[in-house]
Amino acid sequence: MTMKKMAIAALVLLMIAVVAACGKSDKDETPSTPDTTQTEGGETTAADAEKVYQANCIGCHATDLAGGVGPNLQKVGGKLSQDEIKTTITNGRGGMPSFKDKLSDAEITALSSWLAGHK
Q: Could you tell me which PANTHER family the record lists for this protein (predicted)?
């Protein structure tokens, strides 16, 4: 196998590993948050919002919200309001895709409330 083919094979394997890592979670690395968040439909546990985050966001924002492909979200609540975060999740922004067709309104509300608590 030539060096060029080996480099291409290594790149393909790296891309597969990156894609496989998307959506995986490591609960021990998730920052601590309040036990509940207030949403439009009532009270939702932080654990519910964290599950939504782990299933949809860690591929770009990391398990500890430190970012990577996407921006750092560790103090996003100090920069953006819950409504601004909700709008971003719903409609996307910059390189971030819209999640309005992937997540329910309740999931988006819970996630935006949870993230708004990170200050």
A: CYTOCHROME C-553-LIKE (PTHR37823), MENAQUINOL-CYTOCHROME C REDUCTASE CYTOCHROME B_C SUBUNIT (PTHR37823:SF4)
Which residue has tokens 């200050």?
119
What mean pLDDT is predicted for residues 77-89?
Answer: 97
96: annotated binding-site residue?
A: yes
The values of phi and psi at residue 36, to 5°, are -140, 160
For residues 40 and 100, the model is more confident at 100
Question: What domains, with CATH codes, occur in the chain?
Answer: 3-116 (1.10.760.10)
Check residues 42 and 76 and name the one with the higher pLDDT: 76
Round to the nearest angstrom and report the end-to-end CA distance of the chain: 52
- At 96, is the secondary structure helix, strand, or coil? strand
Q: Is the pTM of this model over 0.70?
A: no
